[in-house]
Protein 1
Amino acid sequence: MTVHEQFGDDLALYALGALSGEEKISLEKHLQDCPSCRRELEQLRGDAALLALSTSGPRPPARAKSRFMDALAREPRTEPSRSGFNWWAIMGWATAAVMLVFVVGVARHNRRLSSTVAELSGIVERERLAGDQARRIGDVLHAADAMPYEILPVSVKTKLPAGKLIYSRERSGLVFVASNLQPVPAQKAYELWLIPNKGAPIPAGVFRPDSRGMAMVMNPALPAGVEAKAFAITIEPEQGSSAPTSEIIMKDAGS
Amino acid sequence: MSTASKQSGRDDGALIAAIRAGSQNAMAELYDRYSSIVYAVAMRVLGDTAAAEDVLQDIFMHLWRNPGTFDASRGSLPPWLAVVARNRAVDALRKRRPQSDIEDVTLSVEPDMAAEADRSRVAEKIRSALKDMPVGQRSALEMAYFEGYSHAEIAKKTGEPLGTIKTRIRAALMLLRKAVEAT
């Protein structure tokens, strides 16, 4: 690893939160463009974490546990948290997002075509029905007893990496969810590619799987109206590439 | 697997998943497993039981309200908690608003420290390395990390040149790294 030596001392200070002033601003600017210094910073923070972990002392008093349990009891949480990476929650959000795009799309399209009260009434009714449907899907996916089941051929003994992708050319929208992905090496990430009928592959999102091998890409920035011939995944530097630099490791089954 | 994990049969990842699903029992188990780490760090920085208990409460309640805050792909839980505790405690010590979001803590720690035996072994190495370190080097490192002073403040307090403080702190961290790599 090559760390720019002129920033070596400053990186150590920055890792401890002890760098200030112009030097801090200058280093932060450099870090934006330097993966090797970012990696060294993570390592230095790790070194500092060991310093924190080396502290020893008395265990917290029993009253601290009581105080914590009282606070917990005052804040029960019956629904899965949405701040974490929850596969089914994400499926719910993804479904809701797709439905929302659909609903908004229908509404906009129809507004352009209609101006009569009768037509507007029809739009409202369709929006209501679509909204009800999205809510019902969300209710099931977010239910406290919702359990994920993966239905596979009985001959399948191991779970393979897999992804589901929904793409709308008209909306320039894309939702991708994946499971059973292998971890990627440090400073690497998966990159999704939209392969158009004509022209070079288009970057469609960089992602890293969580500890359970799950990942998601939702509505990456895509050029308008591109007809997709296929979708593929490669492993790229963590910041992503503008063109694939490695072999395709996953692609859609139709290509 | 750590001793705590063996007692419950659930590793940290399983506990976090259960916490995300709203399990108070899982949250209590995680508290039992790691509250001593958080409290020890907070006490080291603050030297005051009431203030350390506030930091302890604050961090675990934050984790309960926002279990997605901890991202296992960015490091294992014990060092992450230790760093979050240090950051919160230093903010409390300097009586300032939080300087960094809990979500921003990203570490690279080897070994991953999920096992209690690993943590004890590494902690002993670190303590030994600190003991053998030149006094000025150790003092600069501890002033920066446990007291939250900037390098300029340390230079002013010690009367040493800024460059010397910078070099000492980096060298001190490198010594800690070497000590752990030697395990």
Protein 2
Amino acid sequence: MVESMSRPCEQVSELMSRPCEQVSSLLRLTTAGSVDDGKSTLVGRLLHDTQSILADQLAAVDRASRARGGSELDLALLTDGLRAEREQGITIDVAYRYFATPTRKFVLADCPGHVQYTRNTVTGASTAELAVVLVDARNGVVEQTRRHLAVMAFLRVPHVVLAVNKMDLVDFDEPTFRRIESQFAAAASQLGVADVVSVPVSALHGDNIATRSATTPWYDGPTLLEHLEAVPAGQEAVAEPMRFPVQLVLRPRTTDHPDYRGLAGQVASGVVEVGDDVVALPSGGRSTVTGIDTPDGPVLRATAGQSVTVLLGDDIDVGRGEVLAHPSQAPRVVTELDADLCWLSDRPLQAGARVLVKHGTRTVRAIVTALTGRLDLHTLRHGSAPAALTLNEIGGARIQLSEPLAVDSYASDRHTGGFLVIDTANGNTLAAGLVGTA
Amino acid sequence: MTATMTAPAAVDVNHLAALESEAVHIIREVIAEFDRPVLLFSGGKDSAVLLHLARRAMHPAPLPFPLLHVDTGHNFSEVIAYRDRLVADLGLRLHVAAVQDWIDDGRLTERPDGTRNPLQTVPLLDTITEHRFDAVFGGARRDEDRARAKERIVSLRDAFGGWDPRRQRPELWNLYNGRHTAGEHVRVFPLSNWTELDVWHYIAHRNVPVPSLYYAHERRVFARDGMWLTAGDWGGPRNGEQVVTKSVRYRTVGDASCTGAVESTAVTIDAVLAEVATSRITERGATRADDRLSEAAMEDRKREGYF
């Protein structure tokens, strides 16, 4: 999805059967910050300053601001969509926002700061290519900042921005900004986050959000919006080895298509072309791609992000749950996973738990045979095996699978290395799982 | 379904291709994992695009599930004609849950203001239960409303159809978890990440047919609550409201008693696109009386099982 946005023009035009007019650029980003860091205000400011808020929305916020006794427009009310959020002045769930500048479209997942809603931060971060982590200039880096940064690092969000907010409340003091910047950089490097850009801002007044502020003459970096417009995005998926998880087999059996048998799916990564030799995993059947179908007619190739239908030359038994790949760059077929988990359930995880694992288009029964470690969010060090993994903790686990899965490590492919851990009884999602490098 | 219409230069085909592929992926996941899906079809532009995408997702196989129209009885004749023609031309199956039937047998009571939009929830839930639908596709978009901005793409509903925003499942990567127990179902929103402008660009790009009232036309209307409403036997005009003839078009299609038209001269798709791109008012703010009731009107309806 995300990764499809900046693929070369010629493949897109095959699908869309129209010439390509411009290279699209969409950035999916997420925000994280502690309670009262001004996150909703920052998001409101971004929407406001990109003219993404229409007159009736602004009027509604103005009315609501006054009703709460405020004299200024409360931009946080734009994004806090639930009754409880407005009443308590906190963000509870991820809100998705859409805004655009002349150069880029943005999908923003605005995530809550409260620790009990960390699982929603995980939701927002799983698809994000950039994370804005907010810190209150008066408080500096706090535990919740480390926790958010750990989640971004865990999910390998490629770009992280530190927005030091409320600079107006510290008189736009450079040493304060630099101190927080270095605290944050230390935590980031411990977690292996390479790309961090720090910006001093006041979301309330708009300093260094869309316009450069005269109050920070000592800062010569980009404004937040300049950075969001410039950061590279969505390149890597096309370059990765081809993965085509089969969603379903299309067999119309109509008079027009009596013998049609197509494999419907979305290219998860890489490029698939007519004539390619492919292997279907985990079953192991070999075949050749004889055609790639779209409702607009056949195409010669399809790239990461495109939903197409693949036709194979041999009548091999391939259905939902299989992954097509090139034989020389095939995923590993495993019956045991060494994985990292971010535990998202109130009920702790202990060794011996019976769960479901959903990876790509396949769901299998599984047993967590051992917990192998835990990330300490104070020291940011990986510690020894815990007795249990509790809500919002990140740790390692060994998982025995009832049937084989064809997997990549999350480190090598963010699009095929993630899985869900699901409760067998009520179907709830218990954890975000990342396939280890084995 | 080859595009024959020339879209304006501003259209970003890569962006539309990505939105289309995302929606097709979601629809295919649900078709693969659920036993009895259904697609909510109001005849509005979003459901028209959703139906188009669902047919693309299955091509060249036929659509494997029916449509469901929750009919308030306060209809625009153009929309019903459009619906029936589409169903006949494409050989689709259509269920109609008529609010009037629920009023006639006493399961629902007419509201004092005559609006039937909120009355759609009970017929919807009853029909889901009766047909044991386990996945209900809807054309709702996150950019429509603050409560909808918090909605997952695959959203679990309890046996009462209720939405509990505090207990939403994490939705990670593009792995959708639709597991549910008996009596529960999921709502599925493949257009979650589309904006109103994206929908119109897509309609132009793929030549998706929509009801004629989305384009400017002469209509007998009267003013109420700052909107132009169409005269009808649902209760308007009244109290001396003046009926006049105006060139208008609709930005949304809903219950005729609370869906307003906007003044417009946009008779072509390009003119509509230009109008939407420069509008300073949201489509719901411009044309939906029911969403003006309170700050949380949509959230409250959703909690009760509304679309």
